[in-house]
Amino acid sequence: MNQNNFDSLRKIPQQREETIAAISTPFGESGIGVVRMSGPMAEPILKKLFKSKKEISHFDSHRFHYGQIINPKTGSPVDEVLAVLMRAPKTYTREDVVEIQCHGGYLLLQKILELVLSEGARMAQPGEFTKRAFLNGRIDLTQAEAVIDLIKAKTMEGIEIANQQLSGWLYRELTSLKERLIHHLALIEAHIDFPEEEIDEIPRMEMTQDLVEALRKITDWISNYDEGRVFREGISCAIIGKTNVGKSSLLNVLLKQDRAIVTPIPGTTRDVIEEVLNIHGIPVRLIDTAGLRKTRDSIEKEGVMRAKEKAANADLILLVLDGSHLLDEDDFEIVSEVKDKKKVIILNKKDLPQKVLLEELKNQFPDDPVVSISALKNEGIDELRRIIYNTMIQREIRISPEHLVIANIRHKKLLVEIKVSISKAINGLKEGESYEFIAFEIRSSLDSLGQMVGETTTEDVLNRIFEQFCIGK
Predict the structure, then answer these.
(1) Is the pLDDT of residue 262 over 50?
(2) Does some domain include residue 345?
(3) Contact 56, 50 (CB under 8 A)
(4) How many domains does the chain have?
(5) For 304-307, which contacts have Cβ atoms below 8 Å and span 24 or more sequence positions?
(6) 112-115: long-range contacts (C-beta < 8 A, 24 or more apart)?
(7) Whole-angstrom Cα distance, residue 268 to residue 174?
(8) Half-sphere exposure of residue 22, counting CA atoms within 13 Å on the CB side?
(9) How far is CA 461 from the centre of its chain?
(10) Do the Cβ atoms of 46 and 79 come closer than 8 Å?
(11) Could you give the C-alpha distances from 101 to 7, 56, 79, 93, in angstroms and in order?
(12) pLDDT digits (tens, 9 = 90+) for 356-384
């Protein structure tokens, strides 16, 4: 999509002349629930439904007012509420916005929403409030994506990364890069379009040095994606081992609660148990699996099959071995199945006399971290948490305005495209390629950059992004 097409997308089409409405708080019982409207009919609809001592036309913008929601057909009150009218353009969507705060019962919220819809609003689509904020130019696309990251964040580190993006640091860095590229492109295209004019010679050396500096910064952003993704999305971590090695005990001690049943009877865990915990800022989805062994029990056999599937798809394996017994054929078979996976070797039951020496185990697994613990006695668990973190995070990540953390795969792919184009432009400058070639590569990088911030993004891409949002945001 070229810039002209995108500009037409940002104009107010028919669908954005409509007023949208949705419940913006989770379903269920709560002290307060919120029904939100955005669009030109927001204030007129409020006038029809909201009764207070003060005329709505005299309401100060962005101030709460006490009153009642009235059913206009019967004149009967529905609920006592607080209503706030926020007039454009100083609103989330840059349109007139109304929020009605009522009691947080499901039926009350549904009734008020039904009344709002009956007066001319339509039900909002997922993420449509934020989409309108983007289309109305209040935020760029990277900031819009940060909103959903903020909502879905499971740790404070995830919140910090989302806030960094929401505050516009990535957008400002990309805008600075865009201005540098446009400057170079303008010089080159002037020479291409006006070859007979007396135009200063292009400073190839200075242009090359500037592009090399831009390339270094882009490479730094790309390099921290793996760590950023871990903080944003978390990891799946499968606890694998044969029966009775202490997998369920390990799950319980990591969660600090009795989530899994622990008995001395082999095969107690027959299905997959999943829970999420925070390990030094990483959201870790722990998966306790059935003990891997040959069995004739059809239910246990199904559990073993599911355990193997979870192990195959996990980001990290916690391979649990029983240090109080010599390793046997079953242990080595399990080791063979996960040999190519990223894993931590856990020697459990250190509170019992040891038949497996830790140093010998480290020699057997030179490429994997090995730790000795007692899940029963809660010994070595802090060390295990540190090892899990260090296994997934290979370098220090500082979340600050000076250190951007890229955590979105769409951003990474586009940055790689920009990197490739700028690299070709640099090589072209060094090797004396034609100015047409250099201009083509710089234009390609500008196009990818425009897709990142939403300046040249297709409607299909926008729909895919905003479909991830909940209704009401």
Answers:
(1) no
(2) yes
(3) yes
(4) 3
(5) 306/271, 306/272, 307/238, 307/240, 307/272
(6) 112/35, 112/49, 112/69, 112/78, 112/79, 112/81, 113/21, 113/22, 113/23, 113/35, 115/49, 115/69, 115/71, 115/72, 115/78
(7) 54
(8) 19
(9) 16
(10) no
(11) 36, 16, 10, 19
(12) 888 888 888 889 999 999 988 999 999 99
* Contacts of residue 350, Cβ cutoff 8 Å, sequence gap at least 6: 323, 372, 373, 374, 379, 380
- Choose among 175, 140, 188: nearest CA to 442: 188
Find the distance separating the first CA and the last CA of the chain, reported in whole Å. Answer: 26
Q: Is 75 left (phi over 0), alpha (psi -120 to 50) or beta?
A: left
Enter the pTM of the model.
0.78
Q: Is residue 55 assigned to a domain?
A: yes
Same domain, 270 and 377: yes
User: What are the tens digits of pLDDT across the range 16-54?
Assistant: 589 999 999 988 888 999 999 999 999 999 999 999 988
The whole-angstrom separation of Cα 71 and Cα 222 is 55
Q: Are residues 122 and 38 in the same domain?
A: yes
Res. 457: pLDDT tops 50: yes
Tokens encoding 411: 């951003």
CATH number at residue 174: 1.20.120.430
Residue 26 to residues 18, 30, 32, 106, Cα–Cα distance (Å): 24, 9, 10, 9
Same-domain pairing of 262 and 368:
yes
What is the 3 state secondary structure string of the chain? CCHHHHHHHHCCCHHHHCCEEEECCCCCCEEEEEEEEECCCHHHHHHHHEECCCCHHHCCCCCEEEEEEECCCCCCEEEEEEEEEECCCCCCCCCCEEEEEEEECHHHHHHHHHHHHHCCCEECCCCHHHHHHHHCCCCCHHHHHHHHHHHHCCCHHHHHHHHHHHCCHHHHHHHHHHHHHHHHHHHHHHHHHCCCCCCCCCCHHHHHHHHHHHHHHHHHHHHCHHHHHHHHHCEEEEEECCCCCCHHHHHHHHHCCCCCCCCCCCCCCCCCEEEEEEECCEEEEEEECCCCCCCCCHHHHHHHHHHHHHHHHCCEEEEEEECCCCCCHHHHHHHHHCCCCCEEEEEECCCCCCCCCHHHHHHHCCCCCEEECECCCCECHHHHHHHHHHHHCCCCCCCECCECCCCCHHHHHHHHHHHHHHHHHHHHHHHCCCHHHHHHHHHHHHHHHHHHHCCCCCHHHHHHHHCCCCCCC
Residue 238 and residue 372 in one domain: yes
